[in-house]
Design a protein that fits this description.
Helices cover 58% and strands 0% of the residues. The protein is mostly helical and 92 residues long. 20% of the residues are buried.
C-alpha cells in the first residue's frame, strides 16, 4: 500500500496512525518512500510524544499480521532514541 507522506508538520501532525503510516513508508522497498518517510521521522524525533507513540507501537510487535519490517523499524527507532536522548542524561 502506497501511503503519501508530507513533510510539512502541520499537514502531517504526529499521531498514532500517521506514525504507523510513516514507519511503513520508511520500511518500503520504494526508495522515494524510504527517503520521505525517514525525513518525516527525523522531523518528529524531537516532538513531544514521539517516543511515547513509538513505545505504544511496540505493543503491536506481537501482531504477526503487521509487516515485520515496520515492527522492527519501530523497535530500532525507540532503541536509538533511548541511546541518543535519554542515556546521556541518565544519572550514573
Amino acid at each position: 500500500m502506497d501511503v503519501p507522506i508530507e513533510l510539512v508538520p502541520e499537514a502531517n501532525p504526529l499521531s498514532t496512525q500517521n506514525l504507523f503510516n510513516t514507519l511503513q513508508a520508511a520500511s518500503s522497498p520504494n526508495q522515494q518512500q524510504v527517503q520521505t518517510g525517514s525525513q518525516q521521522l527525523q522531523n518528529w524525533e524531537t516532538q513531544k510524544g514521539y517516543y511515547s507513540l513509538l513505545q505504544h507501537l511496540q505493543t503491536l510487535f506481537i501482531d504477526k499480521s503487521l509487516p515485520v519490517e515496520t515492527r522492527y523499524l519501530a523497535i530500532i527507532l525507540l532503541k536509538n532514541g533511548i541511546d541518543k536522548y535519554w542515556r546521556k542524561f541518565a544519572s550514573k
